[in-house]
Amino acid sequence: MHQSDADIYQRLSAAHLPTLPQVLARLVSHCEADAIDRTGLAELIAMDPAMTAKVLAAASAIPAFHRPGLPASLRHALTVLDPGLVKTLIVAESVRHAFDLHPPADAASLLRFWKDSLLAAHAARMLAERIGYGHGEESYLAGLLHEIGHLALSCVTPAGMPKVSPGSSEGPADLHARISQAGAALIRRWNGDPFLADSVLYRLGPAARLEHAHPLIRIVFAARLLANGASHAASGLDGAAALLGMDVQELAGLQEQASEEVGRAAASLGIDLATTDGKAPAKASRPPGMGPDAAREKLSAHVRSLALFSETGRCFAKQRDRKSLLDMVSRSARILFDFRDDAVLMLDHGKHVLSVLPGSGRHQRLAELCVPLISAGPLAEAATERRVTFMLHDGSTLGIHEEQLLRIFGSECLVCLPLVAQDRCLGVFVGVAESWQLEALRASDRLLHAFGLQAAAALDALLSERSETERQAAFAAGEFRNVAQRVAHEVNNPLAIIRNYLSVLDRKLIKQEPVNTDISILIEEIDRVGQIMNGLTRLQTPAPGSAAEINRVIHDVVRLFRDMEYAPPSVQIAVRTPDEPFMLDCDPNLVKQILVNLVKNAVEAMPNGGEIKIQNNGFVNQDGALYVGLWIRDTGPGIPKDMMANLFTQVRSTKGNGHRGLGLSIVHGLVQDMQGRITCHSNKKGTAFEILLPVSGLAGPAANPGPNNGHYV
Prior knowledge:
Elements: H1 3-12, H2 21-31, H3 38-45, H4 49-59, H5 74-80, H6 83-99, H7 107-131, H8 136-144, H9 148-156, H10 173-189, H11 194-201, H12 215-227, H13 232-235, H14 237-244, H15 248-269, H16 294-317, H17 322-337, E1 341-348, E2 353-356, E3 370-372, H18 378-385, E4 389-392, H19 400-409, E5 413-421, E6 424-433, H20 438-443, H21 445-510, H22 516-534, E7 548-549, H23 550-563, E8 571-576, E9 583-584, H24 588-605, E10 610-622, E11 625-634, H25 641-644, H26 663-673, E12 677-683, E13 686-694
Parallel strand pairs: 8-10
Antiparallel strand pairs: 1-2, 1-6, 2-3, 4-5, 5-6, 7-9, 10-11, 11-13, 12-13
Helix pairs in contact: 1-9, 2-3, 2-6, 4-5, 6-16, 6-17, 7-8, 7-12, 7-15, 8-11, 8-12, 9-10, 10-11, 11-12, 12-14, 16-17, 16-21, 17-21, 21-22, 23-24, 24-26
């Protein structure tokens, strides 16, 4: 193969094969629906060889597409492809068709190619059924693509090389051989079944050579002759009939049936097949620089960007994790810009370096590469200047990191797209291209930049969502730690009571004094420990249907402190309560928990002795609501001013010995959950807490509010 031929074959995979406009219009309409009908989509795509080729090429990058031992299938390709990716492919093709100023072939030639390809496809499927070959869909696919090399060479043939007219069977034998080789090379590049590629490679025969060939090869040989309208006398159709064990009349009947199928397909698309009889001359390409005026070019570029990336953006936004997003960005970039490899480098704003995002790129060593932004080079420029740059082995000075990237990818050209979201550069998308693609890529600068914006927006949203999830998890963990600390704090109170009562109990047993009351208290405190532990998720949850007689709770708490000798003799505890009972709809253990914390704090605040007063002030009407008012006052040194501002929040305790300053925050939470109120008065003569607990089940102020001795500080 000549070097010029090698260059052409290299370009075949990037050739933009034109899709018949009528088919494309139906596909675009089909994609307007939110949910794609895969069956209808497959039927439409199967009408066009170019679009079929694009779908197979896109599916070939997905491992699930390759099924060992099973033939190629368009339906299977559509099954493994993400519907959004298929939409992107169709939208991209429609936009190219709308704005391409250099069509590869004129409409008449393309229509002839379409008719002959579809005719061969239907003929191949009928032939497969006739001879008992069990892969009808593969046969249809082989017939549809049997001249795909014809179309591809039309798109990439340079000036001076004989032009190929799609749909024609005329021309030099060496030219048709090159068409066969080009088509087979494309199919092999998609990792298609080898028999599918060989059926295209040997489509020309001769018949004598194919006598013992695979059935698919013989089917395509005959289908090609039928599609080109071969006759018994002119083409040796009898040889094809002999290969398949048929007679010429039977082949002619199949040819007529296939023509009817193509006619129905053309009618459904509004195509007049009569226009394929003549051969219109190819439309000359416009000379460079004779495009639309600047305003129209700008508008066209804007519309093209919107059309091309609206579906891409929606497709990116549907991805729920980083790996699936990176895979989707990679596949979309390959479809839109023919990159053969890629990677994403994220920007560390703290360290001012670019490093490869885990999960992007197929080279493991890439993860070890860090590119400092202070280095001069296209990669750093893309991030700092937020523009598309190109990295080339063209003799220009490159940094070590850029040279390493080029060597890792084995390429002479890298395209660097800045990933900018919310006016912040997240990193750089690097696409791997070939040097001969550079001119087309430079012309697509606006599209490349728009693609980078779409990818960045999706990546930023995903990272923000993950950050929010991590923040919520950290918040939940912090809340659990706080609750656990509160539980530990509160459990210590009944445990201390139990420990002291056990000492009291031991002494009473030695003296043979009655201990029934003490044992009852121990049982109550053990139950309270269990209640606190069960309330791990929410300490303040009251037991339903509970009722508390406030005076009794007050006296129980005072007895605990006196009997267990927690309060030293130097600390006196005085109680003042009305004679009548005061019932509240609340859990008595929660009221007990509040009082134990406050009395315990008061005892600890007076190491040198003092007095604690606990008083039930009776009913209190505040803002039209009825409460029972309690006072707990000590004669300690008072609370410092700087601590008063954050009195009921968790702060570092001044007590030392592992105290966490949780007691008052727990008291505040318990009072709030009981719909009550708590205030604190403090000066150098002492501290007083006023607690208002709501009275439910009573309307308005009580007829006999009981004694109220006023406030004191």
